[in-house]
Amino acid sequence: MPSPASSNHRALGYLACAAAGSLWGTGFYFGKIALAELRVGHMVFYRFAFALLVLLPVGLRDARRNRVRFSASEWRLLLLAAFVGVPLQFLVQFAGLARTTVSHASLMVGALPVILALGAVLFAGEHMPRIGWIALIASTLGAALIAFSGNHLRAANAGDPSLIGDLMILAAMVAALFWILASKRLMQRYSPIAVSVYCVTVGSLMVAVWVFLVDGPPPLHMSHRAWMALAISGMLCTACTTLMWNWGLGRIPASQAGVFLNLEPLIGSVLGVTLLNEHLGPSAWIGGALIIGAAVTLTTRAQTQPQIIEQLG
User: Fold this and answer.
1) What letter would DSSP give residue 259?
2) N or C end of the chain: smaller count of CB under 10 Å?
3) How far is CA 183 from CA 119, 151, 169, 173, 312, in A?
4) What's the CA gap between 18 and 259, in Å, rounded?
5) How many whole angstroms separate alpha carbon 126 and alpha carbon 117?
6) Mean pLDDT for all residues in the chain
7) 108/20 Cα distance (integer angstroms)
8) Residues 305, 272: contact at Cβ < 8 Å?
9) CA-to-CA distance for 251 and 261, rounded, in angstroms?
10) Which DSSP category does 159 fall into?
11) Tens of pLDDT along 237-286?
12) Nearest-angstrom CA–CA distance, 271 and 273
């Protein structure tokens, strides 16, 4: 019989992963609020600036405790992971959000667990059972239904979904796959928190260089609503989710934690429809159901997913 203490640890682990998945689901909503007043580059810059306020103290303490010392080859891998995972992924992702709706973007992110499983097969030599391939086909069909449900290449009006925006979100998920696979190699030697904080810190510096060169200094005069959205997206949707996800994974099996990833597309699409008055057509609803259903199936039944889910934090 499990002890009360271990049961409590598992319960807290479930709660932490559920909270992380839920907060990830609000990221596009708060990003859309900030994008009403900011360029994409400035929004991403502020998001990670706020995230570092939380992550840096935790990461420095973890690095000192575990004596993190990267070799030259590990630094090269970290720099590459940081570039793909932060400036490339997030600038493309939020440029896509600026061209589509929160609900469409959130549902497209639901394909990430399936993309991770495919990446594990192609690049990590893992095996995916038949149910995994079925989930991959269903998720691909769902993404196509969502992307083409707008019936136009570019948004006809501000706030409308577009094929370009949806595909940019999907491209960002491919960048996320590379980030996770590259980070996985570093996490074999160092703690997930240390690797995550180093990647985010280095990636944030890259974002800052890009933004100042391309968009100029970020503005300081914004509405309280925009500042609040930036602070929440950085501190809660980026920093706290990273810490809670890693903490929760230390207390529950990764195969069970993976189910909570599916809260992100669910909550994001609900926020878009209910708070931003976005409209999802029948094909988008069907596509979303296919993506989420495939992700739930994969995270609960397929065998490739538990190993790679551990790298999401």
Assistant:
1) G
2) N
3) 13, 38, 21, 15, 9
4) 9
5) 9
6) 83
7) 18
8) no
9) 16
10) T
11) 999 998 888 888 777 776 566 677 777 888 888 888 889 888 877 887 88
12) 6
Class of residue 87 by CB neighbours under 10 A (exposed 0-12, middle 13-18, buried 19+):
buried
Rounded Cα–Cα distance for residues 43 and 90 (Å): 10
Residue 179 to residue 195: CA distance in whole angstroms: 11
For residue 88, the 8-state DSSP code is: I
| Contacts with 75 (C-beta within 8 Å, 6 or more apart), sequence order | none
- Of the candidates 281, 290, 265, 30, the one whose C-alpha atom is nearest the C-alpha of residue 161 is 281
By the 8 A CB rule, do 51 and 90 touch? no
Nearest CA among 121, 230, 105, 118 for reference residue 171? 105
Give the type of residue at 112.
L
CA-wise closest residue to 101 among 38, 147, 139: 147
Write the DSSP symbol of residue 100: S
Cβ atoms of 313 and 242 closer than 8 Å: yes
Q: Is the distance from CB of 188 to CB of 2 less than 8 angstroms?
A: no
| pLDDT given at position 307 | 47
How many whole angstroms separate alpha carbon 7 and alpha carbon 27? 31
CA atoms within 13 A on the CB side of 296: 11
pLDDT of residue 55: 93
Q: Do 194 and 66 form a contact (C-beta atoms < 8 A)?
A: yes
The CA dihedral of 262, 268, 269, 274, to the nearest 10 degrees, is 140
* DSSP E strands, the chain: none
Q: In 154-215, where does DSSP find H-type helix? A: 163-187, 192-214
Q: What is the pLDDT of residues 68-101, one digit of tens each?
A: 889 999 999 999 999 999 999 999 999 999 999 9
CA dihedral for 210, 214, 215, 217, sign (positive or negative): positive
